[in-house]
Amino acid sequence: MAIYRLIASSSSFGPDEIEAMTAAYEVALIDLRLNDRDDPLTEIVAKAIVNVCATGERDPLKIKERALSAIGMSGTDTA
Fold first, then answer.
1. DSSP per-residue string spanning 8-60
2. How far is 16 from 21, CA to CA, in rounded Å?
3. Rounded CA gap, 21 and 75, in Å?
4. If 0-12 CB within 10 Å is exposed, 13-18 middle and 19+ buried, where does residue 7 land?
5. How confident is the model at residue 79 (pLDDT cuts 50, 70, 90)?
6. Residue pair 53/13 in contact by the 8 Å Cβ criterion
7. Above 70 in pLDDT, residue 18?
8. CA dist 3 to 9, 41, 52, Å?
9. Which long-range contacts (CB under 8 A, 24 or more apart) does 48-53 make?
């Protein structure tokens, strides 16, 4: 999955940040109804989540919301 590749290539995140990012990523994909984990959009979502976490945010819900907002999407866009 995209988020795990990004996390693995960076040594700047600790266990708490990794847990928050993976939780945000999983919920974002569910909200966007992205079942195909090879969909290119999953990479965009993952990068946005990593970028939000890099600002210091650690709340998975806020990370997800800010990441989706940054890429111009929300969980209701694909309904």
1. HT--S--HHHHHHHHHHHHHHHHHTT---TTSHHHHHHHHHHHHHHHTT---H
2. 9
3. 17
4. buried
5. very low
6. yes
7. yes
8. 10, 12, 13
9. 49/3, 49/21, 49/24, 49/25, 50/3, 50/6, 50/7, 50/10, 50/21, 52/24, 53/13, 53/17, 53/20, 53/21, 53/24
CB 67, CB 51: distance < 8 Å: yes
pTM more than 0.70: yes
Q: Which two tokens stand for residue 22?
A: 């993976």
Across the chain, mean pLDDT equals 90
Tokens of 13: 């995140």
User: Who wins on pLDDT, 79 or 38?
Assistant: 38
